[in-house]
Write a structure and sequence with these properties.
This protein is an alpha/beta fold. Helix content is 46%, strand content 19%. The chain contains eleven helices and ten strands. It has helices at residues 16-19, 21-31, 45-51, 57-84, 98-109, 130-137, 167-187, 202-207, 215-243, 256-266, 289-297, and strands at residues 6-10, 34-41, 89-95, 113-117, 142-145, 155-160, 190-197, 247-253, 271-275, 301-305. It has a ten-stranded mixed sheet with strand order 3-2-1-4-5-10-9-6-7-8, with helices on both faces. β9 (271-275), α11 (289-297) and β10 form a beta-alpha-beta unit. α5 (98-109) packs parallel to α6. The longest helix is centred in the last third of the chain and has 29 residues, at 215-243. The radius of gyration is 22 Å and the shape is elongated. The two termini are 32 Å apart.
Length: 317
């Protein structure tokens, strides 16, 4: 499945050329996609002239113009590399707040994927950066690349939480599976599909003197919850597993955020694909608590997908 056809790449100060440009190039070629390289300058021409006012009005205006020219020239250099490899590429230089301008372009121009390098060091939590604003508010999938990136992934993980009683979540899990298997096929990578389950309030049932529930009763509840969760997991993954033999299905008990982060670290996962759990149809809603905790911990690249019908709180203009 060649899903991505209109990719927006944010070329910010972290320099996507250094850390991720080979990955972008391969992704575009594999999907037959066109690419728009975008840079966003926080200060517009007027603000820049004010910054350089001490040098005189004329000199300040000249320096401001040269800054814009330098940033655009950098974009053109990157685009030339893509064009030389047969990819349709264009450039755009915007002013304003980066994540807002990116989302506006997605809404206006119909981009189906946003790509950028992770801000700061690999160990820095995403929750403190503009990256999380994009993950929360951008309507299309967002792929945050880490700094240790190869042109193709070797190990991909899909995090799923199937619930056939919730149509929005069920559809989102199918989208995650479609996307993860497609990427694994394109990259010839191994795919781990992880579903974490737990009996809600098991610790309270086992250890609270007020609950008055026997261990045998709790064990029965745990057994039934595991069977119910496993059946949902099989229903989601059977068709995908039948058509893709480089897949490992892992049904694990525990706290979802901890297990997913630990698995990404111990198994040297290149890319984590997961859905952002949110209600749909109204603006301003955010990524789920479990997802945010995972994204704040993992060091691999992250590809997140919104539910169908998600409405961004950012307006097109």
């Amino acid at each position: 499945m060649k899903r991505f056809k209109n990719i927006l790449v944010l070329c910010d100060d972290d320099s996507i050329a250094v850390s991720a440009f080979d990955r972008v190039s391969w992704l575009a070629q594999a999907n037959g996609a066109r690419v728009t390289l975008v840079d966003v300058i926080e200060a517009g021409p007027t603000e820049m002239m004010q910054m350089f006012a001490a040098l005189g009005r004329s000199r300040g205006a000249d320096i401001a113009e040269r800054v814009f020219e330098a940033r655009r020239a950098r974009l053109e250099e990157l685009a030339a590399v893509l064009r030389a490899r047969g990819t349709e590429a264009e450039v755009a230089l915007d002013t304003g707040t980066a994540f807002i301008e990116v989302i506006r372009r997605v809404l206006r121009d119909g981009h189906d994927l946003v790509v950028k390098s992770r801000q700061g060091s690999v160990s820095a939590p995403l929750l403190l950066s503009d990256d999380m604003h994009l993950l929360r508010k951008c309507p299309c999938p967002v792929w945050i690349f880490n700094t240790r990136l190869e042109a193709r992934a070797r190990r991909i993980m899909a995090a799923v939480d199937p619930d056939p009683d919730d149509p929005v979540r069920d559809a989102l899990n199918h989208t995650v599976m479609q996307l993860a298997t497609s990427l694994a096929e394109q990259d010839d990578a191994w795919l781990d599909v992880v579903n974490v389950w737990a009996l809600q309030e098991e610790m309270t049932l086992r250890h609270s003197s007020f609950a008055k529930v026997s261990d045998a009763e709790v064990d029965l509840l745990v057994e039934r919850e595991e069977a119910r969760s496993a059946e949902r997991f099989r229903a989601l993954t059977d068709d995908f597993a039948a058509h893709f033999d480089r897949m490992r299905l892992l049904h694990l008990k525990g706290a979802a955020a901890d297990i997913l982060a630990d698995h990404a670290e111990t198994e040297a996962i290149d890319t984590l694909v997961m859905g952002s759990v949110a209600r749909t149809g109204i603006a301003g809603l955010f990524i789920g608590n479990t997802a945010e905790t995972v994204l704040a911990q993992v060091k691999c690249s992250i590809l997140t997908v919104k539910p169908e019908g998600f409405v961004s709180p950012v307006s097109p203009e």
